[in-house]
């Protein structure tokens, strides 16, 4: 179980073979790594499932292997184009995901790979950035020159990149962190890091092109991959409004809208989360959430409706199909601006 989708196993993976299973997309959402929030966004799960399925089919059509098998309707696995209603379940191939032992904030990746063999989920998130907005963590961690940019310091405006920046972060640590190339290669195991980065660039290019066809700007995103039979395959879910950040006419169109709304309306909770994460790091404790003494409160019905329409209208535009009964993308974005 993840914080926003359920994980179902029909046939477990073995060291020598992939298994079979499915994701069931709920309407739950998560911000600031909190996990399941106290309310739900209607149609969010189906929006993510449809957009993710569309992107997996786009990748497969362009020769990029994935773990996707189709969406599920009435118990049958079908292509998204054959779905008669917004899907909530996605059939996938399964790989092995061993336990990752830890002592505080020290994680034993050797044990993970000893158990995984050569059929495993690569314990990395691969991040691609097409822009560097104000407030991006990249500005705190690096200098423009580190990326070949001709700035003495980061400018007070969004930086649009000629070539995407690829970064690697941990996947299963309680407090995820960005990695240098050497540590990322070690954590990747037998999977080649350069090959993983190449896949990420191809995925980014295809999602960026598809977004542009819908009038959207693709700002950044991430993928996860599995390694099986010497091949890197894209896993988890790809190119949705939760995994990636898009904008429309300068307005953010992604989960970031909900994050920023919480920052404005529940600053005490956001500050408590930040302090708990910092305290956990000081104490070398993995479970930062146990140190947080403030809980988030539910959003109003009006805000949830705006979020619902953002996901549904954005998906309709991206997949070029009126799968959801939703306002136009322009109308949905106008409501987001008014939050």
Can you lay out the helices and strands and say which pair or pack?
Blueprint lengths: L4 E7 L7 E7 L18 H18 L6 E6 L2 E3 L10 E6 L7 E2 L2 E2 L1 H8 L2 E3 L2 E9 L4 H5 L17 E12 L7 E2 L1 H8 L4 H21 L3 E12 L2 E5 L9 E4 L2 E3 L2 H10 L1 H17 L17 H19 L9 H9 L2
Antiparallel strand pairs: 1-2, 2-5, 3-4, 3-5, 6-7, 8-12, 9-10, 9-12, 10-11, 12-13, 12-14, 14-15
Helix pairs in contact: 1-8, 8-9
Outline of this structure?
With 339 residues, the chain is α+β, with helices and mostly antiparallel strands.
Would you write up a description of this structure?
- With 339 residues, the protein is α+β, with helices and mostly antiparallel strands.
- It has helices at 44-61, 109-116, 137-141, 181-188, 193-213, 256-265, 267-283, 301-319, 329-337, and strands spanning 5-11, 19-25, 68-73, 76-78, 89-94, 102-103, 106-107, 119-121, 124-132, 159-170, 178-179, 217-228, 231-235, 245-248, 251-253.
- The chain has one domain: 2-Layer Sandwich (D-amino Acid Aminotransferase, Chain A, domain 1).
- 34% of the residues lie in helices and 24% in strands.
- Strands 8, 9, 10, 11, 12, 13, 14 and 15 form an 8-stranded antiparallel sheet that branches.
- Strand 12 and strand 13 form a beta hairpin.
- Helix 1 packs parallel to helix 8 (301-319) and helix 8 (301-319) packs antiparallel against helix 9.
- The model has no long low-confidence stretch (mean pLDDT 95).
